[in-house]
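agent: user wants the structure for DNA polymerase III subunit delta from Nostoc linckia z8. delegating to structure tool.
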Amino acid sequence: MTIKPFAPLVGQQQAIELLTQAVRQNRVAPAYLFVGPDGVGRSLAAKCFVELLFSDGMEITTALQNRLRQGNHPALLWVQPTYQYQGQRFTAAQAAEKGLKRKAPPVIRLEQIREITEFLSRSPLEAPRNVVVLEEAQTMAEAAANALLKTLEEPGQATLILIAPTVESVLSTLVSRCQRIPFYRLDGESLAVVLTQTGHQEILQHQAVLNIAAGSAGSAIASYEQLQAIPPELVEDLKKVPKSYRNALELAKKIDKDLDTEAQLWLVDYLQQFYWQQWHQAQAMEQLEQARKYLLAYVQPRLVWECLLLSLYQKSRLY
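agent: tool returned. relaying tokens verbatim.
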């Protein structure tokens, strides 16, 4: 049985066309930069492109597709940002699985670039070329980026795919050696298709979540998971204006107790979208934006929410 590699990718027709034509015309570039917002299909497109490259432009067999998706093909190296902990490297998923708490975000390290160089020094096995995919390429420190630059100058029988949110987030000398493949935010219809295909159609009932996602299926799923992680009674209480000064203070105390800073920042986004749908009051949006700034400036969270909720209650009494 054969499968069309790009069949799962929705709403990125330009990227599909550029990559498909590169293989058909035997003009595959040594390096690509997949650039666009998170959650719109960049990583999926990279997987599909690898399948197309390894099938030599033909429809791919299910056996080869399964092998690639299991990550055990000798000609493919998939690189993700990592944390360093007790002499070992962990991806974000591995760190979460082990319960590791890290303050700094994961990065692509110099040691990982050296592993890429070593990988590419070997001839490809069971494929026409070696392929390296670097997710979140913007997390490379300058030393790592400069080391990768040397590899890009002489990649050998290989193709490298860098994935990043913007061109500006990657070292300009790296960008100049890559063919750019643009990815765009999904329209409403494409977003609905992706969410339905991935079993997340219930998100379509939450307009505030969809507004936060702004055309990113990945962001929509992450936002919905965040919504589910917040106590539902707290969410319902916050959808209404506080009933009294005491109610406002109790809500602020509960937010501070139950939610970490990241969840509180997400809650600000959610309330901005929900309140705008309900009230269309610019002043409430400005107050929420000010609350976000205070939270980012490490002002005591309980105080931030007390001020916000008390202000909303006071203004509600004027109408």
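agent: one observation worth passing along. The CA atoms of residues 160 and 215 lie 27 Å apart.
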